[in-house]
């Protein structure tokens, strides 16, 4: 989905006039943000919108904290998609699913150990659980991306 389409759909939920009012901007500018604006045509009807500008900031800095900050503002957390190339270790579906299960077990172990001694999870223990969770999400995302890229398709000869 293009940035202007995301903005258009989001603005439609509350109304362009209401959004413009909340941002203390003209409705005309918000409408322009919600229209396609080819970069090579500066005179086109759309205008560079804030989403495009944020992407440019990320592209220039390559700092994921920019994206993570936005995710945190929406009560979420940014997890970068891992690169999965054909021929990498993701080619073995059974081994990959086993690694996902092992990482899930590691996360559950971290949680169990955190609460078994005193029934509480301290800040340090929460950090350890977060690290286990992030590792698990990365492995699971690698598996899904490998599936999407067709890395688990095998030609079977029955002859």
Report helical residue fraction: 55-70%
Alpha-carbon distance between the two ends: 45 Å
Count the strands?
A: 0
Mean pLDDT: 84
Unreliable segments (pLDDT under 50, ≥5 consecutive)?
none
The number of helices is: 7
Q: How many independent structural domains?
A: 2
Q: What is the succession of H and E elements? A: HHHHHHH
The assembly state of the depicted protein chains is single chain
Principal-axes shape call: extended
Which structural class do you get from the secondary structure elements? Answer: mainly alpha
Characterize the biggest β-sheet. none
Strand content: under 5%
Compute the CA-based radius of gyration: 22 Å
Description:
The chain has 2 domains: 3-73, no CATH class; 89-148. With 159 residues, the protein is mainly α. It has helices at 3-14, 16-23, 27-33, 50-61, 64-73, 93-116, 123-148.
């Amino acid at each position: 989905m293009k940035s202007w389409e995301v903005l258009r759909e989001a603005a439609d939920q509350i109304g362009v006039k209401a959004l413009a009012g909340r941002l203390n901007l003209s409705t005309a500018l918000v409408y322009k943000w919600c229209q396609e604006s080819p970069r090579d045509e500066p005179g086109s009807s759309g205008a560079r919108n804030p989403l495009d500008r944020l992407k440019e900031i990320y592209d220039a800095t390559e700092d994921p904290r920019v994206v993570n900050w936005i995710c945190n503002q929406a009560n979420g957390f940014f997890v970068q998609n891992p690169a999965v190339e054909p021929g990498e270790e993701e080619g073995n579906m059974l081994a990959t699913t086993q690694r996902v299960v092992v990482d899930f077990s590691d996360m559950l172990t971290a949680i169990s150990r955190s609460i078994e001694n005193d029934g509480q999870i301290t800040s340090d223990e929460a950090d350890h659980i977060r690290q286990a969770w992030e590792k698990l999400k990365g492995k699971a995302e690698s598996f899904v991306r490998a599936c999407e890229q067709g890395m688990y398709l095998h030609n079977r000869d029955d002859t």
